[in-house]
Prior knowledge:
This protein is mainly α. It has a single domain (11-262), classed as Arp2/3 complex 21 kDa subunit ARPC3, CATH 1.10.1760. Helix content is 73%, strand content 0%. The protein has helices at residues 3-32, 43-68, 74-94, 104-114, 116-133, 141-155, 163-189, 208-222, 224-256. The longest helix has 33 residues, at 224-256. The chain is globular and about 65 Å long.
Amino acid sequence: MSTRQAGLATMQQARLSLALATALAIGAVAFSWPLFLTPASGVSAATAPLVFALVLPLVLAVVLTELSAGRLDAKTLAMLGVLAAVGTVLRPLSAGTAGFELIFFLIILAGRAYGAAFGFALGAITLFTSALITSGVGPWLPYQMLAAGFVGLFAGLLPKASGRAELALLAGYGVVSAFVYGWLMDFSFWPFALGDGTQLSFDPVASPLANLHRFVLFNLATSMGWNLGRALTNALLIALLGAPLLRLLRRSGRRAQLLAPAIATPTSPE
Length: 270
C-alpha cells in the first residue's frame, strides 16, 4: 500500500470513527437527560423528534462512509438489507412477550462478523423498519433505534476470540446488552411512568444519585422479568445458532470484501 493510499485509508477510518462517536454522544444526551432536567421542561417530548431526525442521517453517514472507503460494495449493502428484513420479520413473531425477542442475537452476530459500523446501522435500521410494519412508531422509536444500534456497535468492538471462547463471549455480551438495552429504554420514559408522590417516581428536586436509586428500584419492580427473558433468549440463541451463522456471515463477508478486522478466519467450537 502506498503512502497516499495509507493516508486515505486513515482519513476514511477517522470519518467513520467520528460518525460513530457522534452517535454515542447523541445517545448519551438522549438517555441521560432525566438526571439533569425536569419533566416539566418538556424535554423528552421535544427531543424525541430531534433525535429521530438525527439518527437517520447518522445511519446513512455510516453506510456512505463505508461505501466511499470501498469497504461496503453492492453485495454487502444487499446483505445489510437482507439482515434488516430478517430482523423485521422476526420482531413481530416474538413481540417481546415476557422478554422473548428474536432480533438482538442477529444484530450481535452481524456486528461481530462485519464490524461496529455495520452493527450500528443494522440495529437502527431493523428497529425502524420493524416499527413501520408493527405500528410501533412513536416518541420511543428513536430511542429504540439508538439503543439497538449500540448493541450492534459494541458487538463489533468485542475483543478477539475463537471457537467456544468466542461463543461464550458473545453469549455473555448478549446477557449484558439485554439488560443495558432494557435499562436505557426504561430510563427514557421513567420520569413520566408513575406520576408524582411514590417512592419509585422521578423527583425533579432530588439529586442525580437519589434519582438513580429510585430508578433502580423502579426497574427491579417493573422490568426485571422482561430484561431477564431477553437476556436468556440472546444467550440461548447465540449458543445454539452462533457458530453456523458466524461461519455463514463471514463467508459472505469475504466475498463482499467487508472490514478486514471483522473477517477473522471462522473456526468451529473446540
